[in-house]
Automatic annotation (TrEMBL), chain A:
Membrane topology classification: Multi-pass membrane protein
Domain ABC transmembrane type-1 per the UniProt entry, residue ranges: 16-204
Organism, as annotated: Motilibacter deserti
Protein name per its UniProtKB record: Amino acid ABC transporter permease
TM stretches of this protein: 20-40, 52-76, 82-101, 185-203
Location of the protein in the cell: Cell membrane
Family statement: Belongs to the binding-protein-dependent transport system permease family. HisMQ subfamily.
Pfam families: BPD_transp_1
Keywords associated with the record: Amino-acid transport, Cell membrane, Membrane, Transmembrane, Transmembrane helix, Transport
From TrEMBL, chain B:
Entry keyword set: Signal, Transport
Pfam name, any one: SBP_bac_3
UniProt similarity note: Belongs to the bacterial solute-binding protein 3 family.
SUPFAM superfamilies tied to this protein: Periplasmic binding protein-like II (SSF53850)
Superkingdom classification of source: Bacteria
CDD domains listed in its UniProt record: PBP2_GluB (cd13690)
Source species: Motilibacter deserti
Coiled coil: none
The protein's name: Glutamate ABC transporter substrate-binding protein
Region called Disordered, residue ranges: 25-52
Residue intervals of the Solute-binding protein family 3/N-terminal domain: 57-281
InterPro entries: Bact_solute-bind_prot3, Solute-binding_3/MltF_N
Signal sequence extent: 1-21
Amino acid sequence: MLETLTDNWDLFVEAFRTTVLLLIVSGAISLVAGTLLGAMRVSPVPALRTAGTAYVTLLRNTPLTFVFFFVAFGFPRLDIRFSYFAFAVVALSAYTSAFVCEAVRSGINTVHVGQAEAARAIGMTFGQTLTQVVLPQALRAAVPPVMSVIIALAKNTTIASGFGVMEAGAIGATLNERGYPAFDAMIWVAVGFVIVVLPLSLTQRRLERAVVRSR
Amino acid sequence: MRMRRMAVLAIAGALALSACGKDSEEEDAGAAPAPSAATGVTLEGSPTFDKMTSRGSVVIGVKEDQPNLGYKDPTTGEYSGFDISVAKYIASKLGFGEDKIEFKAVPSANRETAIQGGQIDYYVGTYSITDKRKEQVSFAGPYFIAGQDLLVRKDDNSITGPDTLDGKTVCSVTGSTPLQRIRDEYKGAKTIEFQKYSQCVDQMLSGQVDAITTDDAILLGYAAQQPDELKVVGKPFSEEKYGVGLPKDDKVLRDKVNDVIEEMETSGEWQRIYDATLGQSGSTATPPPLERY
């Protein structure tokens, strides 16, 4: 059991490093893109609202594997050539942004509409209202659902192993081929994911505490 | 008198019903290598065989995406290839005709689990015999020897062997031994993993990868499918002994399957199967010596 881990330590380290890298890069992109999308969906410009809604409807209702397939097999046909890591980042970010958007929007909905009206009444622009009044409060309420989305992203990264990226999702197959029992390998991969996700849960708790203090 | 005739008729009818598989085989025995089901096979002390007998059929794990080896026709659902023919031959000698075989596509990563869990009775699908795997399952054979090779685009003359892979992108199935070998021994190459060889072929045709690596037997099948686009380099740099995967502790069945393979090789049936499947790409081969244990 333990030797499955110790004999293949290099593989575990390499694979999980890629997983964490995927998580950090696509997580960061998703947070920014998702927040922008959320802003689009509540903006006073109908075209932006429609575009935001269409994006969320399309990406949130599509299986992630399909998004991956579209990117990893479709893009090369259109002569769009990146590394498979970049393809994976594109697929994961495109998908996760839709969920971040909805989490952020749910946060925005917790801010009383009177606040936005008050901000407008004292002459703030839409951008100012959003960035200085609504979003700071909205993001606080959005912390738990957004963290859930990011934790889901951490686990979704395993799909990249089927599309050219050697990460934690590929450990099972690799060890199996080396002749180690599949079950042991999976247990250690699961342990690895608990270790990756634990800091995210802790971050959520700290962020929530920070919110309580500032209110 | 009358009674006797009726009895004879009844017996004849019963025979015709029970042995119809055998009848049809005798008619086209010369044409296709469709072996007849042996009758009255008994294997004392083989739990796997007992299970097959009580089920009345045999469940064989195979590959479904390797042309000329183990391939499932997507339109008809028919399985064909060298491994499939070997699997059928073994089944027939165990007493199971073609209509008593259920093929189950099991990808490489799930082979041991499927054998240990009893989802399949035995496995025939480019399954390399290794000492490490013998800790989990057992092997009859080898019935074929393959070697790791490279599949490249037809117009690509820059890759002539594993030493020319510096800076090239090499694709294979996730975690597979050939890929691990490239990663360990030819560090200049960039490795890419997909779940199926057919996906690697797709990526190579769209220019994202430069070479695909695995056993030559598998690659030859893909080259034969698209001879205008793909070619095999043809310099094998490893030795893979294909065996029949069996439950670890079933020595009785393993010995029996070894006997069957030996008979298949000496009777010329092996050569016939080879010529009808893998040999179609123009390659030749001879059966390897058995490694009984």
